[in-house]
Amino acid sequence: MTQPTPTHARTVIVGGGSIGCSTAYHLTKLGMRDVVVLERDRLTSGTTWHAAGLIVAGVLKSESECEIYTHGRDLYARLEQETGVPTGFRDVGYLQIASNEERLHEMRRVAPFMRRHGINVLEISPKEAADLFPIGDLSDVLAGFYIPEDGRANPVDVTMSLAKGARMGGARIFENTAVTEILVRNGAAIGVRTATGQSILAENVVICCGMWSRQLGAKAGINLPLQAAEHYYLITEKIEGLSRDLPVLEDPKTYTYYREEVGGLMLGLFEPGAAPWKLDGIPEDFAFGEIEPDWNRVGPHLEKAYGRVPSALNVGVRKLFCGPESFTPDLAPLVGPTPELRNCYVACGMNSLGILNGAGIGKVLAHWIVDGTPPVDVTAMNVNRFTRNEATRAFRRDRGPELLGKMFGQHFHNESFQTARNVKRSVLYDRLKAAGAFFSESHGWELPDWFAPTPEQAQVERYSWFRQNWFDWHAEEHRAARRDAVLMDMSSMSKFSVEGRDACALLSRLSCNDVDVEPGRVVYTAWVNERGGFEADLTVTRLTKERYVVVVGENSHGHTEMRMRRNIGEAECVVVTDITPGITQINIHGPKARRLMQKVSSADLDNEAFPFMTAREIDVGYFNILALRVTYIGELGWELYVPSIHAVQVYDLLMEAGREFGLRHAGMQTLGSLRLEKAYRDFGVDLDNTDNPIEAGLGFAVRLDKPGGFIGREALARIMAQGVPHTRMLQFLLKDPEPLLYGNELIYLDGREVGHLQVGAYGHTLGGAVAIGFAETGAPLTAEIVKAGDWEIDVAGKRVKARASLKPLFDPEMERIKC
Predict the structure, then answer these.
(1) The CATH number of the domain where 326 resides is what?
(2) Domain end position, chosen among 564, 581, 598
(3) Do residues 624 and 521 share a domain?
(4) Domains in the chain, number
(5) Is the pLDDT of residue 788 over 50?
């Protein structure tokens, strides 16, 4: 007998694919029994049914990616014992091949990090790789990287097993029940309405409907930028002697994965130049569907794929399959509470890795819903990271073709997306381009990465993990900042005006530091959650009694705005305004910065009149602008907040006045190297929501005694009471000037692995690669241990001697900043 759909539930999940069933399963594991899953057709009918079912690690470069992956792999291996429903998981092994020096170097960099986080990556010889995959032509392979525990599963079986487990925990699942609307009241989701007109009220609504998620979300004003694309795989006829336990092979050279399929071989493509599917919307009645293959477009890619397994040409083609998979603009999932609606959550945009990551994502989201905070770092996947620009039809059309190839091909540390660019440009863009800027992209912003001597030279000759053609130009920018002066366009920094009667109360509640200061003071502070984990690190500047300016990096724009708005009390009067588009931020820094600024301003800029961490309105030429005496590079200087209508004029004035002081442009590469010499932190890059200010060395910005306290105070108080932390963020400098550091390299203390680096750059002043990272020793990590320890960093499999420090290795007493 068919059970009737309920009228109430604690949590309603929209979508019965692997993600929806995983989320329901993990919610019941946390004790939430009143969970309802609504599937518009049949379970798995969207994209789950045609997934390849690869359970392989790929190249994972964050702790959260590793944890999400290993949870799924381990769960699929044991889930049948719990539910009685098989998942089809088989640990046939996973083999990645490196056929050029750059790929080999990348894999040697990432393999130790993955091993540290539970993924047993083994480097093997070309012969060993050929023995594992005898059907392939691996004559060009330099090395293989093999994970014996990885393998494959049956996507339908996985989903059915998760669904059975969810039902065993009390969840109810309803097929052929389409959701047409999310019900909203007072800015919160209160339930859903089905196609039959029935309303189901709920405390939480979770959108897990795959490639349909964007459309459903848009009806409720929720921004979910994802786009379906054609995804191909070919299955050959039976190949005699092909082992059922053939390892999964991944080849970035051909953009193809290979695995056994019912005695034949599957060739799955992640080709460059993929085709977006249904830009105007996914048909609501599309179920267990296929797309007519475009042989002409995919033919050349299949030819390359067959080049790795030429013997497969001797058998026929059983099936060329084309089906849709949804992708996000940056190839990371969309997960978490939506900024537009309270009590509404989302997990979608799996970028063709729904089976691979579905279990881990379901676990993360379930904890987020039940506990209020996620159990892993979610900065890269948080749904609040995008603006509405990325959801436009034109953006999805232009970015879509790049995504599959970008996901599967060769990776480099400094390579940006090439499509859908120029979403956000500073008004100084043309000036900077004429000055030789090479632009990278971050969160839609065109950022000057480095400057060439001429615009014609502003090109990357060849992306590499080693020194590139721009390295020496960047070094000159770095040295100018330390010796003379530099100008940086930092307009991408997110700026919010926070004003009103209760502005101080709101920001005090959020901030670990004391922001109830005199007008004209700049306060550096962290924001943390109830567990003491970072939610932001930023500056809060008080302009008047009731008005502040909050400044944070472009990667935290949406998250910071959401956190402020969500914490305004019902009776409070606070207005939060995003003023980023109207402000061009020009930074002037370096030993000669004061002399330059005095040439263009009549303001008193002496240290006594304009001390460090203060803000003043000053004149620059014809214009009155807000100037903050702060630094992110460790040098004397000012951040100038220029109304964009005056920015070009101010820029021209500064460049002309700066000639006699050796003023140079400087880009993001130089910002990174300068700030790492000073060991300055950056939330979203080297700090995340699982780290806390005490272990990160930012305890100086935590005021436990400030009136009224702050969110997370009790958690930080407990951490402080424990004394010297066992885990501490340290700065490292390689003693060998040749190797480069980027992040994820392992840290060794007295021969023992104790952590990994978060981010690295080249310290041109210090004379070697410099980085910051967390060391975990299991005992108090004292200053004496740090100083006396024998420290090493693993760089692509080779240990390099390093110096470690709790204090910045460059200007530890801040003499250059406060002069």
Answers:
(1) 3.50.50.60
(2) 581
(3) no
(4) 4
(5) yes
Residue 146 falls inside a structural domain: yes
Look at the block and give the residue holding tokens 């200053």.
Answer: 783
Q: Are 399 and 421 in contact (CB under 8 A)?
A: no
* pLDDT tens by residue, 685-703: 999 999 999 999 999 999 9
Domain range enclosing 165 = 8-383
Q: List phi, psi (to 5°) of 438.
A: -100, 125
What is the pTM for the complete model shown? 0.96
CA pseudo-torsion sign 497, 501, 502, 508 = positive
Residue 361 domain-assigned? yes
| Residue 332 structure tokens | 């990371």
CATH, residue 649: 3.30.1360.120
User: Parallel, antiparallel, or unpaired: how do β-strands 768-776 and 727-734 relate?
Assistant: antiparallel
Residue 613 and residue 536 share a domain: no
pLDDT at 409: 85
442 by DSSP, 3-state: which? strand
Q: Are residues 199 and 87 in the same domain?
A: yes
How far apart are the C-alpha atoms of 504 and 500, rounded to whole Å? 8
Q: Are both 500 and 600 inside the same structural domain?
A: no
In the listed set 659, 687, 703, which residue is the last one of a domain according to the structure?
659
pLDDT tens-digit map of 603-651: 999 999 999 999 999 999 999 999 999 999 999 999 999 999 999 999 9
The model's confidence at residue 1, banded by pLDDT at 50, 70 and 90, is: very low
pLDDT of residue 410: 86
Question: Is residue 772 within 8 Å of residue 759, measured between CB atoms?
Answer: yes
String of DSSP letters for 585-652? EEEEESTTHHHHHHHH--S--STTTS-TTBEEEEEETTEEEEEE---SSSSSEEEEEEEGGGHHHHHH
Position 158 pLDDT exceeds 90 = yes
Q: What is the mean pLDDT of the chain?
A: 97
Helix (H, G, I), strand (E, B) or coil at 752: strand
What letters, b where the CB count within 10 A reaches 16 and e where it falls short, cover 31-50?
ebebbbbbbbbebbbbbbbb
Q: What is the pLDDT of residue 2?
A: 67
Q: What pLDDT does residue 614 have?
A: 98
Q: Tell me if 329 sits within 8 A of 386, measured CB to CB.
A: yes
Could you tell me if 269 and 133 lie in one domain? yes
- Amino acid in the structure at residue 45: S
Enumerate residues 6+ apart whose C-beta is below 8 A from 117.
60, 63, 66, 67, 70
> Are 514 and 603 in the same domain?
no
Is residue 390 within 8 A of residue 384, CB to CB? The reply is no
For residue 103, is it within any domain? yes
pLDDT tens-digit map of 249-301: 999 999 999 999 999 999 999 999 999 999 999 999 999 999 999 989 999 99
Tell me if 688 is assigned to some domain: no
Helices 354-371 and 18-29: crossing angle in degrees, nearest 10, is 40
CATH number, domain with residue 748? 2.40.30.110
What residue type is assigned to position 352 of the chain? Answer: S
pLDDT in tens, 398-416: 999 999 999 988 889 999 9
What DSSP letter does each residue of 57-82 carry, written as one string? Answer: --S--SHHHHHHHHHHHHHHHHHHHH
Domain shared by 738 and 644, yes or no: no
